[in-house]
Design brief:
The structure is a single chain. The protein is an all-alpha fold. It has a domain at about 40-130. About 60% of the residues lie in helices and about 0% in strands. The protein has helices spanning about 15-20, 40-55, 60-70, 75-100, 105-130. The chain is elongated and about 70 Å long.
């Protein structure tokens, strides 16, 4: 008699793991509802959310996100990302104004253009990545909208 269990049969795999109903969706794990945007439109609106953020601050990403968030998980994600980044930069502008008031305008002359330049540079980078279909994350942003 052998007690090491070598002759035991392996336990069968539960059928729930083998059924196609529990397999991951073909869209990379994101469930897609009926009436979603095409892949080309996903990339376009994702790109617009980032680029418009560089031009219109938080208003452009807010409009894109509000209109298209239910039509595409990609646009929902990228719209929120661009909107959170632009809100973070708006806070930077407010800080710049406060420091400008305290320093007689000197701090505002340096900080405000720097915040604007960061907005333009990262907005363009985000737009280019979203246009490729890549989920872009800004290097810093307050995650206020989840």
């Amino acid at each position: 008699m052998d007690n090491d269990g070598a002759g035991d049969e392996p336990a069968p795999t539960p059928p729930a793991e083998e059924t196609p109903a529990t397999a991951a969706p073909p869209t990379g794990g994101i469930a897609v509802a009926q009436g979603t945007l095409s892949e080309k439109d996903d990339k376009l609106f994702g790109m617009l959310a980032h680029i418009l953020g560089a031009i219109t601050n938080f208003l452009g990403p807010l409009i894109i996100w509000a209109i298209k968030k239910d039509e595409s998980p990609f646009v929902n994600d990228q719209g929120k990302e661009a909107l959170n980044f632009q809100i973070t930069l708006a806070i930077g502008h407010v800080v710049s104004m406060i420091l400008g008031a305290v320093t007689g305008g000197c701090a505002s002359l340096i900080i405000s253009p720097a915040v604007w330049l960061v907005s333009v540079i990262f907005g363009i980078i985000g737009g280019m990545e979203a246009n490729k279909g890549v989920v872009y994350r800004y290097p810093f942003a307050l995650r206020l909208i989840k």
